[in-house]
Write a structure and sequence with these properties.
Belongs to the precorrin methyltransferase family. This protein is α/β, with parallel strands linked by helices. It is built from nine helices and 15 strands. It has two domains: 8-137, Tetrapyrrole methylase, N-terminal domain (Cobalt-precorrin-4 Transmethylase, domain 1); 142-277, Tetrapyrrole methylase, C-terminal domain (Methyltransferase, Cobalt-precorrin-4 Transmethylase, Domain 2, 2-Layer Sandwich), CATH 3.30.950. The strands form four sheets. It has a five-stranded parallel beta sheet, with helices on both faces. A five-stranded mixed beta sheet has the order 11-12-15-13-14. A three-stranded antiparallel beta sheet has the order 1-2-3, with no helix packed on it.
């Protein structure tokens, strides 16, 4: 009797099963696009992007970086802004899985690093649950670019023995639930992502937990981009300084921020700077 067992063989990106062509399984790459400057894109990220068939990207990824993908690649913006969400996170997860199961090479292109407040972990979990291959390509997170551009080290032997990254918003909006007493310790750099609109409550919490109002604070808007802007202030002056910021920005609080190149520093910051240099 003839053997009816299914036999398969690979032909390029397709699988021939009993003579019927079926596309081989695709994959998802979670790629960090960095803070905005195309030259801060890693070589690996560039190679993966140049091989993409679908690019699902954040709204803040620059056109210069998107143009590095093949002209034939489908581009889908899943921009998340404070008052507008084009796709929910669940919809993005399902989209990535669906494209990969259709045999496509999918690049999920994220500003900064996928695993630093980028929801990359959720997308990785969704791919694993669907048994879709998923690889992660790290990127330069905005805090590194902001500190480097301003000449303000996030760690410094004399004034910042540790650095902590926190989010400025709770998962469902509002004030984040953080260990404010730990964050109020001196000689600690606190980097606050997505915290401009919460600058007032955040500063109040840190002050209430004992952090000195004279602690230098730096706001960096559009880090690494041509229109980058820096505002050097103090923790006490942070809420007022944040009112002048309209674009995506980081808040960085800590003694080492006195070293930032951001124009003339407030007198309180100059006093801290003298101590750092001593």
């Amino acid at each position: 009797m003839p053997n009816h067992e299914n036999r398969s063989k690979r032909s390029g990106s397709f699988v021939l099963l009993n003579g019927a062509p079926k596309r081989a399984a695709g994959a998802v790459w979670l790629v960090g696009a960095g803070p905005g400057d195309p030259e801060l894109l890693t070589i690996k990220a560039l190679k993966v992007l140049q091989a993409a068939e679908v690019v699902v990207h954040d709204g803040l990824v620059s056109d210069e970086i998107l143009d590095l993908a093949p002209a034939s690649a489908r581009r889908i913006s899943v921009a998340k802004r404070k008052s507008r969400h084009s796709y929910s996170q669940d919809e993005i997860n399902r989209m990535l899985v669906a494209f990969a199961l259709d045999g496509l090479k999918v690049v999920r292109l994220k500003g900064g690093d996928p695993f630093i407040f980028g929801r990359g972990g959720e997308e990785l979990e969704a791919c694993r649950e669907a048994r879709v291959e998923c690889q992660v390509v790290p990127g330069v997170t905005a805090a590194l670019a902001a500190g480097a551009g301003a000449g303000a080290p996030l760690t410094h032997r004399g004034s910042a023995q540790a650095v902590t990254f926190v989010t400025g918003h709770a998962a469902k909006g509002g004030e984040p639930d953080l260990d404010w007493e730990s964050l109020a310790k001196p000689n600690l750099t606190v980097v606050i992502y997505m915290g401009v609109s919460m600058a007032g409550p955040i500063a109040a919490r840190l002050l209430g937990a004992g952090r000195a109002g004279s602690t230098p604070a730096l706001i960096v808007e559009n880090a690494s981009r041509a229109d980058e802007r820096r505002v050097l202030t103090t923790l006490a002056g942070l809420p007022q300084a944040a009112e002048s910021v309209s674009g995506p920005a980081l808040l960085i609080v800590g003694e080492a921020m006195a070293l930032a190149h951001a124009g003339q520093a407030p007198p309180q910051v100059e006093a801290v700077l003298r101590k750092v240099r001593a």
